[in-house]
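F.,

This is the one I mentioned.
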């Protein structure tokens, strides 16, 4: 990789910025700069004065690994005989002989390994945590506080506590009651918890920090006073409109003009409407047009009527001006009032969350930046260094475009100190085009300003653009250059446009080839296009395989997790292995959420949120959505179930209630026909229930609480993933690269139609001492004033930038091929689909096949891949807390080999239901690290002997229903867990138990206990067998 032409050769500039587009070698450049900082003097401890900051643990680990790998490489004698490009560059920049760099590298590596704690390549969050720990007393924190990462969980607790307190506080009760009434009048659910949970994330979103801090001392009384102030102002507006309309109406009536002479009687209608108690939408667009074109009266109006109107024209113009102003003010007040309760609740949630943290001696990681800003910013920089116990003379920051405003303000004192010395420097690396985290505080405008020379430091930065793309083949680079240069037209800001007109114009790396295809599916609606997207993705995947690409060389990128879930489920149905760190989350599955909602109804049959999830799942197009929801949300539970059943199902809520959690979920899946095809999510969910009930009493509330704690950690994966397609969201793919990228569902709107919330400044004396209030940012808001229109357009512009940035990240991941799957329907609301369709037509791309166009040429893969072991059809397991992990971690190191073998053997047998499962079960045990390669053949032989034993004919076949490791609960509440039992026709059962030690009487007692319980459950025990496992298999039948 070569980037030397972009590097200024003079020694140690104080302030450098790398403007690094996708694939331009920024990590390479960053590591090179770090190595140069370590090796430019003969001081192996240099690294201790260097601070390198990244934004993810993965990035920090990668940079540490690269630095150590390079130092290790530089330390070897081989480097002197076969110097690498990086070594050449370091030698040249340090201005010494290569032997000197070789020796310094060895010393530096040794020093780092001996003092690894001072090797400061860290994440911004880790650094913040370190500073907060250091200044705990100054921040009013205990020295033993615990860091919380789960912001959502804390906010859910705060919302629940806030609702529980309703009734205890009169002011709070009144505000929330008014909110319920408001929602009911809008035909919305009265359940305010949904709205409160939706707004709660704003509490720890840095974009709202200043406004929340300003209202920190407000009480419920202040919010009630605000309500009164808003109502008074609304009344003033209405009265002014009423009065003006009444006066002009009287004058018009007294003018002698016949009512029929007015065009559409519009002026009369508007004046009458202006005298009502709710004068909305006046003056109308029609009246404004008629007045502007002198057409308020019909052409047939008499001369005297025309003269009478002319004499009142000034009054009409003045009325229009006054009413327009009052209407805009009234509209703004109504928008403010609509957000008043969520606004007041936001403050209450914030205070409740603070109390929860204090009581639990915990602090959210996301709350550290505001804490630091309020405290550290007032302290002198040397004091900060003194307390940290280290002075950094060189600071590197990667992915700077994702830095939030507060993070940057907290870092400025450290950087300012570093840059004040001639032998110190700072290096920032970023790309505003790859800023896709504005929703969590990322502020790319900071990086844009710095590259323009707008800086808080006394010296100007030296901005170095890394011009070349080393990742992608030439066709992909050129296609992206053209596409984003043309797409920049959707932006209005010159700064934003230049990011793509100039910043996206990358040089190629003399790597010929590559291809970009654009496939356009049919369908007038998203719902109609959905199956076409799935099929097109599958076909594209097959086409890549036909050209010798391995599945593990292909990544499918999606805009949302839900799209990823759809892709994953569809490919699973096609028997295609898939891996994913996020789209395989159990909580992303619609079916899993339906099952959870049924469990929630066991606790509260009137839970409207749970009912709505179920109603949405079973809704069909021949129903009226409004009636379907309205009836289903309010009916008694038995009528609700009847509505869901219709003519198709026979679900009984009484039976459902009588069953344990696992059996209840199984019953729901079976009765409501939810398992028509392979669903790894439901399998994973069932296994999670098994794991929970294995160690905990089977309690509905207990399991649901457990689920809330782990729902964002549990996912499904394959038993074998050595040749699986990867599915991930674009946000997760940032910083990664893949040989082939497929991007389906590519039709995201450039500007979201979903209204955002926004803070507006208001006069404190008119709004009960509040200086900022929350409003919904929509078209109506934009029309309330010129300044608000400017706010509206500015936010839409940032949305457009963020959308284009997200698209840029997606399209710059591939090395060899990029396959975009979109649709061609142009509409007034710009979307990715419009950009793709316009690009294809403007550049006259050739048609590859029906509805597919191409830039470049598709070729057979020339990539060299390791030989892959063939795998069978897809098998799914949970990704965390499986029995293997938990039970093995609980084993003591001094347990003997027999116990360990017994555990592993039981785990393998729990996965075998029919004889053909043996290979997969053994493969799984090997993948999990439970057995070594030397044990595979031995165990396979042993288990084959067992499953084919002529005395175990009832087991390991499809004649009966076999249950492995299934918990049985007696009427006395005692739970037992046989290794395996099979239910045969005529309610007969056979039981099997595995033992690896010597035969003991207790083994028979245990088996008889299982038999007794099954007998009480109504089964006739046909056979009871103990299988003893040693070097061979021996059976003992109990009679």
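My design for it:
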């Amino acid at each position: 990789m070569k980037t030397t032409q972009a590097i200024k050769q003079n020694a140690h500039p104080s302030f450098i910025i790398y403007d690094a587009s996708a694939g331009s070698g920024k990590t390479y450049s960053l590591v090179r700069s770090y190595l140069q900082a370590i090796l430019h003097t003969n001081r192996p401890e240099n690294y201790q004065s260097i601070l390198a900051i990244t934004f993810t643990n993965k990035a920090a680990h990668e940079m540490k690994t690269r630095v150590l790998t390079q130092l290790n490489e530089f330390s070897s004698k081989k480097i002197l005989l076969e110097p690498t490009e990086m070594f050449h560059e370091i030698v040249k920049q340090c201005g010494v002989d290569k032997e000197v760099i070789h020796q310094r590298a060895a010393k530096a590596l040794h020093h780092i390994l001996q003092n690894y704690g001072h090797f400061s390549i860290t994440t911004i969050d880790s650094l913040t945590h370190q500073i907060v720990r250091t200044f705990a007393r100054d921040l009013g924190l205990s020295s033993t506080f615990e860091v919380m990462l789960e912001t959502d969980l804390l906010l859910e607790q705060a919302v629940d506590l806030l609702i529980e307190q309703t009734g205890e506080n009169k002011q709070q009760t009144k505000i929330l009651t008014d909110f319920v009434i408001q929602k009911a009048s809008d035909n919305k659910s009265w359940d305010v918890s949904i709205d409160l949970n939706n707004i709660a994330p704003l509490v720890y979103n840095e974009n709202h920090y200043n406004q929340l801090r300003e209202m920190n001392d407000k009480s419920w009384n202040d919010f009630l006073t605000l309500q009164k102030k808003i109502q008074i102002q609304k009344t003033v507006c209405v009265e002014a409109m009423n009065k003006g309309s009444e006066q002009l109406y009287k004058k018009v009536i007294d003018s002698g003009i016949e009512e029929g002479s007015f065009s559409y009687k519009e002026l009369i209608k508007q004046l009458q409407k202006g005298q009502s108690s709710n004068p909305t939408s006046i003056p109308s667009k029609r009246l404004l047009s008629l007045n502007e074109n002198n057409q308020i009266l019909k052409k047939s109006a008499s001369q005297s009527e025309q003269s009478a109107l002319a004499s009142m024209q000034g009054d009409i113009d003045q009325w229009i001006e006054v009413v327009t102003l009052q209407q805009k003010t009234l509209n703004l007040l109504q928008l403010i009032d609509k957000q008043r309760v969520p606004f007041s609740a936001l403050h209450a949630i914030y205070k409740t969350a603070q109390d929860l943290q204090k009581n639990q001696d915990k602090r959210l990681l996301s709350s550290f930046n505001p804490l630091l800003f309020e405290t550290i910013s007032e302290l002198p920089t040397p004091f900060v260094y003194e307390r940290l116990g280290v002075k950094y003379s060189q600071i590197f920051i990667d992915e700077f475009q994702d830095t939030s405003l507060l993070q940057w303000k907290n870092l400025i004192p450290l950087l300012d100190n570093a840059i004040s010395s001639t032998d110190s420097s700072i290096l920032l690396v970023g790309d505003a085009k790859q800023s896709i985290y504005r929703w969590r505080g990322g502020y790319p405008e900071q990086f844009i300003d710095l590259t323009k020379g707008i800086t808080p430091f006394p010296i100007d930065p030296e901005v170095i653009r890394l011009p070349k793309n080393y990742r992608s083949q030439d066709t992909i680079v050129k296609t992206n250059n053209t596409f984003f240069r043309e797409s920049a037209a959707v932006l209005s800001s010159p700064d934003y446009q230049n990011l793509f007109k100039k910043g996206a114009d990358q040089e190629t790396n003399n790597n010929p080839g590559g291809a970009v295809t654009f496939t356009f599916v049919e369908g007038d609606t998203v719902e109609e296009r959905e199956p076409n997207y799935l099929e097109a993705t599958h076909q594209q995947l097959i086409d890549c395989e036909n050209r010798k690409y391995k599945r593990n060389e292909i990544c499918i990128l999606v805009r949302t997790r839900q799209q990823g879930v759809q892709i994953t489920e569809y490919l699973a149905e096609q028997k295609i292995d898939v891996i994913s760190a996020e789209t395989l989350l159990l909580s992303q599955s619609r079916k899993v959420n339906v099952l959870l909602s049924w469990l929630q109804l066991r606790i509260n049959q009137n839970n409207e949120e749970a009912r709505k999830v179920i109603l949405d799942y079973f809704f069909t197009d021949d129903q009226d959505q409004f009636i379907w929801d309205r009836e289903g949300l309010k009916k008694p539970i038995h009528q609700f179930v009847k509505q869901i059943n219709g003519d198709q199902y026979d679900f009984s809520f009484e039976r459902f209630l009588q069953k344990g959690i696992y059996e209840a979920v199984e019953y729901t899946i079976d009765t409501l026909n939810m398992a028509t095809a392979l669903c790894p999510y439901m399998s994973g969910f069932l296994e999670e229930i098994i794991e929970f009930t294995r160690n905990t009493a089977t309690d509905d509330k207990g399991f649901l609480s457990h689920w809330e704690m782990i729902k964002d950690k549990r996912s499904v994966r394959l038993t074998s993933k050595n040749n699986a397609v990867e599915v991930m969201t674009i946000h997760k793919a940032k910083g990664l690269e893949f040989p082939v990228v497929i991007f389906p569902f590519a039709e995201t709107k450039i500007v979201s139609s979903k209204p955002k919330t926004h803070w507006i400044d208001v006069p404190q004396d008119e709004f009960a001492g509040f200086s900022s209030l929350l409003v919904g940012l929509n078209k109506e808001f934009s029309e309330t004033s010129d300044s608000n229109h400017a706010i509206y357009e500015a936010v839409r512009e940032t949305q457009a930038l963020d959308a284009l940035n997200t698209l840029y990240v997606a399209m710059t991941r591939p090395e060899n091929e990029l396959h975009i799957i979109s649709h061609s329907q142009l509409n007034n609301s710009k979307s990715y689909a419009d950009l793709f369709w316009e690009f294809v037509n403007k550049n006259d791309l050739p048609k590859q096949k029906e509805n597919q166009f191409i830039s470049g040429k598709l070729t057979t893969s020339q990539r060299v891949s390791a030989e892959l072991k063939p795998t069978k059809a897809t098998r799914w397991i949970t990704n965390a807390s499986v029995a293997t992990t938990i039970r093995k971690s609980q084993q003591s190191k001094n347990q003997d080999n027999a116990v360990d073998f017994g555990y592993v053997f039981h785990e393998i047998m729990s996965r075998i239901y029919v004889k053909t499962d043996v290979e997969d079960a053994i493969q799984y045990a090997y993948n999990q690290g439970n057995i070594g390669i030397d044990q595979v053949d031995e165990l396979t032989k042993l288990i084959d002997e067992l499953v084919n034993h002529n005395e175990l004919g009832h087991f390991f076949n499809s004649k009966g229903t076999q249950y492995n490791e299934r918990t049985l609960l007696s009427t006395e509440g005692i739970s037992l867990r046989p290794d395996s039992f099979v239910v045969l026709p005529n309610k007969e059962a056979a039981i099997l138990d595995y033992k690896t030690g010597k035969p003991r009487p207790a083994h028979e007692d245990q088996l008889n206990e299982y038999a007794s319980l099954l007998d009480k459950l109504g089964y006739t025990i046909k056979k009871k067998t103990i299988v003893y496992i040693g070097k061979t298999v021996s059976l003992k039948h109990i009679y």
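The chain is about 50% helix and 15% strand.

Talk soon.
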